[in-house]
């Protein structure tokens, strides 16, 4: 049996996991600069000369240094982390919005911490958990927040921006698509297509977007002198949207146009109308959604829908957050981003108002059409 030499044992290096992290002081000594210079190099926006930055980066690379963001946040009072609350990512619109938001914040050297709220509930129950983290700001994506807790966030200095929702609280800013005007545009489009029997598939009663879309649609139909639309609830779920569609299509007076409060429910409605009732969607029955998610353009649906421009919504929200995190006043209040009605094959085409914009067919109400009473 071979005896291991004592020197062989002591020359073995400790496992990588046990090695002590390199400190900023060691980088400073190696680079021949002060420790504060190292801190400035790794603090976004801090002033430091190009020569010093190059020396510090080279030293950090050689030594394998990684800045300790937790320690840095204790010194600066800023974590550069933004909390994002979203009611799950099963809705493609939420997934696209969160991805775009994360990319936009990353460019500004912020990182996202994701929290999920239970579908159909407010963010209030998880706010206590959220406030335990050192966050610079909070974004609520399609999640509600009570006025009381919005004011509590304001008291602790946590800027809050709601995206795709709004609240009555003056302590919170919001960024939404043009829900009422978009829904009114859909109403005008369906009227121009000579539809006579309308239905609206709502989301959740607690959803400001669903309420605003219903209000805009109803008002436009009322202006035209038609009967109010039938109302069913899809609750933003496939199961309830399927049931709601069946109830509509089994009715004695079946609607010839269904406006769904989002694309996800509209695509479920198309599936049910085709597979269970054998209807030719786009000819015998028009179905329109809202959001213009990526799947809406797929050959399986070719959904006519009012777009919510995710890039513009995120840009507006991020500008508000960055201003607030930089110490500038958070200008509370609603910000509304305009969209357009993207026309595909799921709805009957009107004779006028169609044009090509950015590779899409869009519809705008002709000037002479204004309000045609029926």
How would you summarize what this structure contains?
The chain is an alpha/beta fold. It is 39% helix and 17% strand. Helix 12 links the parallel strand 8 and strand 9.
Could you explain the architecture of this structure?
This protein has 374 residues and is of the alpha/beta class. It contains 13 helices and 14 strands. The protein has an eight-stranded mixed β-sheet, sandwiched between helices. A six-stranded parallel β-sheet has the order 2-1-3-4-5-11. Helix 10 (208-223) links the parallel strand 6 (198-202) and strand 7. The model is unreliable at 1-14 (pLDDT under 50).
Cα-atom Rg, whole angstroms?
27 Å
Specify the structural class.
alpha/beta
CATH architecture verdict of the largest domain = 3-Layer(aba) Sandwich
Number of helices: 13
Domain tally: 3
Terminal CA distance? 102 Å
Residues in helix, %: 25-40%
The CATH class name of the largest domain reads Alpha Beta
CATH homologous superfamily assignment of the largest domain? Response regulator
Low-confidence stretches: 1-14
For the biggest sheet, the summary is: 8 strands, mixed
CATH fold name of the largest domain, please?
Answer: Rossmann fold
What is the string of SSEs from the N terminus onward? HHHHHEHEHEHEEHEHEHEHEEHEEEE
Strand order of the largest sheet: 7-6-8-9-10-12-14-13
Q: Kindly estimate the percentage of residues that lie in beta strands according to DSSP.
A: 15-25%
Shape: elongated
Count the strands? 14
Overall pLDDT metric: 85
């Amino acid at each position: 049996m071979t005896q291991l030499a004592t020197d062989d044992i002591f020359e073995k290096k400790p496992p990588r996991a046990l090695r002590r992290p390199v400190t900023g002081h060691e980088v400073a000594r190696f680079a021949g600069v002060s420790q504060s210079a190292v801190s400035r190099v790794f603090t976004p926006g801090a002033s430091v000369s190009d020569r010093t930055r190059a020396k510090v980066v080279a030293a950090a690379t050689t030594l394998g240094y990684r800045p300790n963001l937790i320690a840095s946040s204790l010194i600066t009072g800023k974590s550069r982390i933004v909390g994002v609350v979203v009611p799950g990512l099963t809705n493609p619109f939420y997934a696209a919005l969160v991805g775009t938001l994360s990319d936009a914040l990353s460019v500004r050297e912020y990182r996202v911490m994701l929290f999920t709220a239970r579908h159909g509930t407010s963010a209030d129950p998880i706010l206590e958990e959220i406030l335990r983290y050192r966050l610079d700001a909070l974004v609520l994506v399609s999640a509600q927040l009570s006025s009381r807790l919005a004011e509590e966030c304001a008291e602790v200095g946590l800027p809050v921006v709601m995206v795709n929702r709004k609240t009555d609280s003056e302590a919170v800013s919001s960024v939404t698509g043009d829900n009422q005007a978009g829904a009114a545009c859909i109403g005008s489009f369906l009227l121009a297509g000579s539809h006579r029997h309308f239905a609206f598939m709502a989301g959740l009663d607690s959803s400001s977007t669903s309420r605003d879309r219903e209000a805009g649609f109803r008002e436009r139909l009322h202006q035209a002198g038609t009967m109010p639309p039938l109302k069913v609830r899809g609750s933003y779920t496939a199961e309830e949207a399927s049931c709601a569609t069946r109830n509509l299509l089994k009715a004695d007076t079946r609607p010839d146009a269904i406006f769904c409060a989002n694309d996800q429910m509209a695509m479920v409605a198309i599936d049910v109308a085709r597979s269970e009732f054998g209807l030719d969607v786009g000819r015998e029955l028009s179905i329109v959604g809202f959001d213009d998610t990526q799947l809406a353009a797929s050959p399986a649906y070719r959904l006519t829908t009012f777009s919510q421009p995710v890039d513009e919504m995120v840009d507006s929200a991020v500008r508000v957050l960055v201003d607030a995190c930089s110490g500038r006043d958070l200008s509370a209040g609603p910000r509304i981003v305009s969209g357009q009605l993207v026309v595909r094959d799921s709805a009957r085409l009107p004779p006028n108002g169609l044009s090509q914009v950015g590779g899409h067919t869009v519809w705008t109400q002709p000037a002479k059409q204004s309000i045609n009473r029926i």
